[in-house]
Amino acid sequence: MRIVNVKIPTLSQQLYYDVTIEHGKITEMHSYEKKKVGDRSFSFLLSDHEQDDLVTWDADGRILLPGMVDAHMHLDKSHSLVVAKNQSGTLLEAIQSYTKASETFTDENVLDRMRKTALAALAHGTTTIRTHIDFNTRVNEETTFRGVRMALQLKKELAPIMEIQVFPMLPYYPYDDCDRKKIEEMLTFGVDGVGGAPHLSELPIECIDEIFSYAKKYNLPIDLHTDESDDPTVDTVLYIAEKTIEASYQGKVVVDHLCSLAAMDEEKVNTVIAIMKEAELGAITLPAANLYLQGREDRGVVRRGITRVKELLEANVPIAIASDNVCDPFHPFGRGDLLQIAQLTGYTAHMGGKADLYSLLKMITEVPAQLVGKEPKAFVVGAEVEFVLFDAKTIESLLAELTQTRAVYRRGRWVAMTKKTSEVSLHPTIIM
Ligand SMILES: [Zn+2]
């Protein structure tokens, strides 16, 4: 298959590209300044792509991005809002409500909700998901293991069309022998890494030590919910960084949320960012859930709980954007569209200039690819390629309109194609 006249903003801001793909790999790629002539105008209808090998598609300057990487989701919780309410809107009630509801779930119910969210993300152009999965050892035994079992089943089922990484969240209460036995058993199932939320623990240092010891024993990367609090004295990130260096785990630890970093004074922020750099921690901002959950106690000026995105970018700490929760008690909205979350990051981190827009696009593609252990540069001759083509010709319109018309390609074939046929007309007829 050959596509000409695509724009790849993660590579160049001005050039057009001509990309030839055989058996899922790029065999030729050229850049040029003026559009050239293609065979057929690119179609967003799957039925038109049967003869792909023979056609040179003309993308007419549309935008191509590497398959998006949503590095922090909760597939097990998604679409559980109907059974797990959250009246106060706080993190605490969300956790309590979800834990109670989880004991009523069935394998089928969990798998169906996870599949629905994963496929919605794929249709929007996300080809890799890292999902955190609850692992609560103090509910009935079936519930304890259900999320991880179902996530691994889904990972296998969807492997032909997308990549799913499963990160169980180790509990944040102090473990007894019974908890440890269940954790050890679960870690033999073939999970991709270890997660947790040590800032919620009464003994966060001990909790972090436990997480690192399991990760090292099973040689797994670590991805932690970190300091999801408005309180500037909550700073477990400092010990996570220290521990990362001590364990020689640099480049294998990601810290997510970092809400308290926004509330700290500048001096402390500089200290935290410096040690994050030294420990080579990756960072993830999750604006949708944090705008919803944080600042619940505030009156008047309400804190937003969004981490220091610009400061982390300036310090060259790799920071990605991710969705977090979708339609559950932690965050009641969302559709699994990472581009929408990038737009939200534009609002929350005050990033709207041209250079900012390019940064936002890298934060949903190359940066999270690096954080989840994938090759960050997607468009290289000889490389297996996965991408999403958008029906948008400028990055400004892409991020303003969030077009739903998208085509997603992976491992040598189109895996999702959406053509929105009922777009609200941008040129309405005005009747005077
Ligand atoms: Zn989360």
UniProtKB/TrEMBL annotation:
SUPFAM superfamilies for the chain:
Composite domain of metallo-dependent hydrolases (SSF51338), Metallo-dependent hydrolases (SSF51556)
Q: Specify the protein name.
A: Amidohydrolase family protein
Where the record annotates domain Amidohydrolase-related, the positions are 63-413
Name the coiled-coil region(s).
none
